[in-house]
Amino acid sequence: MPTPTKGPRLGGSPAHQRLILANLATSLFEHGRITTTEAKAKRLRPYAESLITRAKVDTVANRRQVVKVIRDKEILHVLFTEIAPKYTTRPGGYTRITKIGPRKGDNAPMAVIELVEEKDFSVTTKTPKKKAAKTEAAPVAESADEVKDQIAAADEAETETTTDEAVVEAPADEAAAETTEGDADKA
Amino acid sequence: MAVPKRKMSRSNTRHRRSQWKATAPQLVTCANPACRAKHLPHRACPDCGQYGPRGEQRQVI
Questions:
Q1: At A104, which CATH number?
Q2: Cα distance from B17 to chain A (closest Cα, Å)?
Q3: Whole-model pTM above 0.80?
């Protein structure tokens, strides 16, 4: 069974829905920000972001996949040469939805969906913090071990006993599991 | 086809309609110090068009 689309259905038919989403995505890439209803903006966000993700790698195959949706060649060129290179280091989340008040004519809740600003998300900025934290924690533990060798030996003895208990307990659990399975088979 | 058996009395009609009540929406004050208008929460302010926490507002509209 195919998974239903997340969010409300748009238009009157699947073809109409495809056209609405394609036109919304084209307009978004053309203007950078568009005002639409909340329902359409929520449907457009994953649709447009998957297109940008595909456009990040400029190959003939990817261009053929994207041109199925973005039929305007000028906007296709802008997407592959200007929009996608901005987000090379950004791991998804290329668009932002901001709710604005209800529309005058039919009180429909409106929203602005826009492409977010360029920002550097290169991996080197994150990893040093974690490594530094680990290296700081490790020496302290080592010095403590050196000071309390005797206590550590006592601890080891205790841990051995506990591991033995764990080993004893584990087969019991397995046996219990087997018995339950056997009961299930009987039932 | 199902049809009403009795005329709906004026009293019953008015009693039913008296339950149609509107509630005032919860409003917040705009974070923009120059605006300070009341607007719906989690929505851009329609007066100044800004959205975001205090000190980090963005011009949306």
A1: 3.90.1030.10
A2: 23
A3: no
Is the ipTM reported for this complex over the cut 0.95? no
Instruction: For chain B, say whether A105 makes contact (Cβ under 8 Å).
Output: no
User: A-chain residues within 8 Å CB-CB of B43?
Assistant: 99-101
Q: What is the mean pLDDT of residues A123-145?
A: 54
CB A111 within 8 A of CB A37: yes
> What is the residue range of A110's domain?
14-120
Count of the separate structural domains present in chain A: 1
Give residue A3's pLDDT.
87
Q: How far is A104 from chain B (nearest CA, A)?
A: 12
State phi, psi for A33 to the nearest 5 degrees. Answer: -150, 135
Residue of B nearest to A103 (CA): B46
Number of CB pairs, chain A paired with chain B, less than 8 A apart: 20
Percent of chain B with pLDDT over 70: 100
User: CB under 8 Å to A154, separation ≥6 — which residues?
Assistant: none
Nearest residue on chain B to A101, alpha-carbon basis: B43
Pairing of strands B28-29, B38-39: antiparallel
pLDDT tens profile A136-145: 555 555 554 5
Provide, as residue numbers in chain A, all residues whose Cβ is less than 8 Å from the Cβ of B39: 101
Token output for A109: 């809740």
Length of chain B equals: 61
